[in-house]
Design goal:
- The chain is mostly helical and 270 residues long.
- Helices cover 67% and strands 1% of the residues.
- Helix 3 runs antiparallel to helix 4 (125-149) and helix 5 (155-171) runs antiparallel to helix 6 (175-188).
Length: 270
């Protein structure tokens, strides 16, 4: 066989091998190609959907914090808390701020829904009691929420709520309940990142014990003793309530030599 024939034969075999490869690839594409292409499209669609969902959640969180920053009145804060439940810590933060607004208004005796110079700016006794109860209810809601989650990172909200409940109880005169809330702070703060809250609670407990100590007042006012008044000679003259002392013989002789008045009568001897 000549060299040209061998070369032609090799070229024919190469063409046959390439043809078989092309046929196998076409057969593979017909069998699995569509499934693989469909899988790739599904993965791409899932990735795009997750990205869209993440962007939407991020926008919702940003909107929630923005609404919280724009709310000032307690009613608006409570509405934000209910609307954005479960979005970061917006709900407990809003409820805690609303409770603080009620308590601050009671302590300052100034309504937050009136101008400072208004005639009805001061709280009535009925409104004071109502706002104290509302503040205590919001504080209790925050404390229950954080206690249920059992997340130590949210204990700042818990301690803020318990301090608020202690302040409300103290204002209502229930020192025993106030001490209970402060002791709970002292117990929960041990071994946590909020040790300063426990120290502050201990100081508040000491102040409560001082408030609980009764102060005994005298039944009748005690009149001060009358002070002696100096006379013209610089000596202390007896007060009006003290009996006058009888003059001595030397004092009587000096008075007569100085041209004084008639000698004073001598006291009668018994």
């Amino acid at each position: 066989m000549s060299q040209i024939d061998r070369r032609l034969k090799n070229m024919q075999q190469a063409d046959l091998s390439e043809g078989r490869v092309n046929d196998d690839f076409v057969h593979w594409l017909k069998t699995w190609g569509q499934n693989i292409l469909l899988g790739v499209l599904i993965i791409a669609a899932l990735a795009m959907g997750y990205f869209w969902w993440s962007q939407r959640k991020e926008k919702e969180r940003d909107d929630a914090w923005s609404e919280l920053g724009g709310a000032t009145l307690p009613a608006a804060l409570q509405e934000v808390a209910a609307k954005h439940e479960g979005k970061d810590a917006v709900s407990p933060f809003a409820e805690l701020l609303a409770a603080d607004r009620y308590l601050s208004a009671v302590l300052s005796d100034q309504r937050f829904d009136r101008e400072p110079g208004a005639v009805d700016a001061a709280l009535t006794p009925e409104l004071r009691t109502e706002w104290l109860k509302t503040a205590d209810g919001l504080y209790a809601k925050v404390a229950a929420r954080i206690t249920a989650t059992k997340n130590p990172g949210d204990y700042g909200f818990l301690f803020g709520a318990l301090f608020g409940r202690a302040a409300v109880a103290e204002d209502l005169g229930d020192l025993k309940a106030a001490e209970g809330y402060l002791k709970e702070i002292e117990t929960r703060s041990k071994g946590s990142d909020f040790a300063a809250a426990g120290d502050l609670a201990a100081k508040r407990i000491a102040n409560l014990q001082a408030l609980a100590t009764p102060v005994v007042l005298p039944s009748k006012p005690i009149a001060p003793a009358p002070a002696a008044i100096p006379d013209l000679t610089g000596q202390l003259a007896p007060s009006a309530s003290a009996p006058a002392a009888a003059p001595t013989a030397g004092e009587e002789m000096i008075r007569q030599l100085q041209g004084g008045s008639a000698p004073a009568p001598k006291p009668a001897t018994p």
